[in-house]
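Figure 2 data, in text form.
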Amino acid sequence: MAVKKSKRDLLKVSVVKKASSVCIFLLLAFNCQAQETPPRLDLLQQAASGGVTVLIIAILSVITVAVALERFVHFTRKAIIPNDLMPKVIPLWEQRDYQSLVTMLNEQKSTLARVLFFVVQHRDSERDIISTGSGDIASMELRHHLQKTYPLAVVATVAPILGLLGTVFGMIEAFHVVAYSGELGNPALLAEGISKALTTTAAGLVVALPSLGLHHYFKNRAVIYGLALEKQVNDIMNDWFSVKSIQDSPS
């Protein structure tokens, strides 16, 4: 009986020792992890360390936002080929009320309205002349809209190069600090300088990528609107200036 009791006591002592060892190991592991975990990265503070270069990139980002908002507001389907224009134009054309048609088109601000205004004003001219003139107006209007997105392409090109330039200057400054301090074997001092230097490259890419994407988006929108406008003008030319229409049209 005494032997069994002694064995139970030994087993309890063994379990307590193992549990104590596990607790001590977990505490040490947690302490090591707490010491090795770096502080959270403060993006604003890191960006501020980029200096003048990051400030210029920030100004470029403001330009990107302003241009994009302006294009989203003004470069719409309604500004190019509004859906409600042709239902107003066709009855006046069929009634040959050209004066009312010209007045109504002159009040419209869309590209299609300006093309139709030219067509109505030159309705007695040759079809080739009308077709060429209307095509030139449509092309000029679309190029004008596309030209307003050009600042996006400029920002997409300049921002990463400016960021890279800031990184180069930052690297030069980092190595200068290390050389001046004489602590060539201190990696922390060099790592801090390199981290600040790379901030400008990151900032440039953050601004350049959306700018490039928006530029291609508006270019694609211009192509879509251009194709739709070309189809609309071709339908008008075929409907209004067919052989029969030319014969029935007043001179």
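Caption note: The first helix runs from residue 2 to 36.
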